[in-house]
C-alpha cells in the first residue's frame, strides 16, 4: 500500500506537485498518468525519499520510506534505468545490490533469468546496453529483494513488443500475488491494458482518479444495433448524448446498464454493448489534461495573438 496525503513540492515559486492525495492499493496495478512536467517523477521521488516534500506526506507500507526497516526488501524501485553505473556489468550491479541487501548470490541468477538477460549480456558493461536491456536490469534490481511494493517510472520505455508483454504479465502476476504496483507511463495503451486504478495528474494537481472501469465508463459506452439511427434517437430521447458512428454503432455518454436498459425499453435488439475502447484512455487523458498540455497552451497563445 502506498498512501500519498496532501503532498506538495515546490521548486522556488513553481509548484511541481500541488496538494496531491491518492492511494495505490495492494493487489492492484495503479497507473500514474500525466503530460510532460506534470509532477509524476517528483511525486515518485518523494515516495522513495529522494526529494523532501514541501508539505504533506507519503507512506509506503505504513511508514515513510526512510523509516522502513529494510527498504530494499520491502520496496522495489525503478526511476531511471539510465542512472545505473555505466562501467559495471549487469551482473556486478545486481551482485552489489544483493550483497548490500544481505541476499544470496543465487538471487542474482534467478533475477537475470526472470528478466531474460542472457549470461553473455549480464557480463557486458552497462554502457553497452540498449535502453530495453537497461530497463530489464532496472526491473531485475527492483525485484531482487522480493518486495511487496513496486514503484516504476516509465518501466516500458525502450522495451520491444515482446518485452512490453513480458513486463505486463510480470506486473499483473506481482499484483495478483498481493503486491502493490505504481507505474507511470506515457504508453496509454499499456496502461489501459494493465492498470486496475488510474491517477491522472496535470500541472501538479490530480485531475482524475478512480478505478479504470469507473473512469473509462464515464468516457462512454459503445453500443450497436442493426438500426443505429433508431438507437441513437432512443438514447437521445432518454436524455443521453449519443453520437452515431459507422455500422450501426453509437457512442453514448452513459454507463453500460443505463444504455442497455434504454435500448431494451425501446425494443431495440443490440448487437454489441461495451465500454467504448480503442482511443478511449487517450481521449480521456487528452481531455482531462487539455488545460495542462503544452500543445494546447500553444494553440491558446496562437489564438490570443490572432
Ligand atoms: N530539481 C528540480 N528543480 C526545479 N524544478 C524541477 C526539479 N525537478 C522537477 N522540476 C519541475 O517540476 C515539474 C514536474 O516535473 P516532473 O519531472 O515531476 O514531471 P513528470 O510528470 O515526471 O514529467 P515527464 O512526463 O516529462 O517525465 C516540472 O516543471 C519540472 O521542471
From TrEMBL:
Residues 2-228 form the ABC transporter domain. Pfam families: ABC_tran. SMART domains: AAA. It comes from the Bacteria. InterPro entries: AAA+_ATPase, ABC_transporter-like_ATP-bd, ABC_transporter-like_CS, P-loop_NTPase. PROSITE patterns: ABC_TRANSPORTER_1, ABC_TRANSPORTER_2. Keywords: ATP-binding, Nucleotide-binding, Transport. The keyword Transcription regulation does not apply. GO terms for molecular function: ATP binding; ATP hydrolysis activity. Belongs to the ABC transporter superfamily. PANTHER family: ABC TRANSPORTER, ATP-BINDING PROTEIN. This is ABC-2 type transport system ATP-binding protein.
Amino acid at each position: 500500500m502506498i498512501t500519498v496525503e496532501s503532498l506538495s513540492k515546490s521548486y522556488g515559486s513553481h509548484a511541481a506537485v500541488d496538494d496531491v492525495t491518492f492511494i495505490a492499493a495492494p493487489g492492484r496495478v495503479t497507473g500514474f498518468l500525466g503530460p510532460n512536467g506534470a509532477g509524476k517523477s517528483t511525486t515518485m521521488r518523494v515516495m522513495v525519499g529522494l526529494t523532501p516534500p514541501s508539505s504533506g506526506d507519503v507512506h509506503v507500507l505504513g511508514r515513510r520510506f526512510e523509516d522502513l526497516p529494510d527498504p530494499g526488501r520491502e520496496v522495489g524501485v525503478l526511476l531511471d534505468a539510465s542512472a545505473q553505473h555505466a562501467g559495471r556489468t549487469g551482473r556486478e550491479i545486481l551482485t552489489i545490490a544483493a550483497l548490500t541487501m544481505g541476499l544470496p548470490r543465487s538471487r542474482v541468477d534467478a533475477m537475470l533469468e526472470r528478466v531474460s538477460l542472457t549470461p553473455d549480456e549480464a557480463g557486458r558493461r552497462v554502457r553497452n546496453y540498449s535502453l530495453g536491456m537497461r530497463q530489464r536490469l532496472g526491473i531485475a534490481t527492483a525485484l531482487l529483494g522480493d518486495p511487496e511494493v513496486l514503484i516504476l517510472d516509465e518501466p516500458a520505455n525502450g522495451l520491444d513488443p515482446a518485452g512490453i508483454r513480458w513486463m505486463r504479465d510480470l506486473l499483473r502476476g506481482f499484483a495478483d500475488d498481493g503486491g502493490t504496483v505504481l507505474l507511470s507511463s506515457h504508453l496509454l495503451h499499456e496502461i489501459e491494458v494493465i492498470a486496475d486504478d488510474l491517477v491522472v495528474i496535470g500541472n501538479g494537481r490530480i485531475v482524475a482518479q478512480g478505478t479504470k472501469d469507473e473512469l473509462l465508463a464515464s468516457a462512454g459506452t459503445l453500443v450497436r444495433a442493426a438500426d443505429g439511427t433508431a438507437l441513437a434517437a432512443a438514447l437521445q430521447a432518454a436524455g443521453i448524448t449519443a453520437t452515431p458512428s459507422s455500422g450501426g454503432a453509437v457512442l453514448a455518454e452513459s454507463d453500460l446498464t443505463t444504455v442497455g436498459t434504454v435500448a431494451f425499453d425501446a425494443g431495440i435488439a443490440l448487437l454489441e454493448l461495451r465500454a467504448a475502447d480503442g482511443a478511449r484512455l487517450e481521449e480521456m487523458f487528452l481531455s482531462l489534461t487539455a488545460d495542462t498540455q503544452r500543445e494546447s497552451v500553444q494553440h491558446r497563445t496562437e489564438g490570443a495573438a490572432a
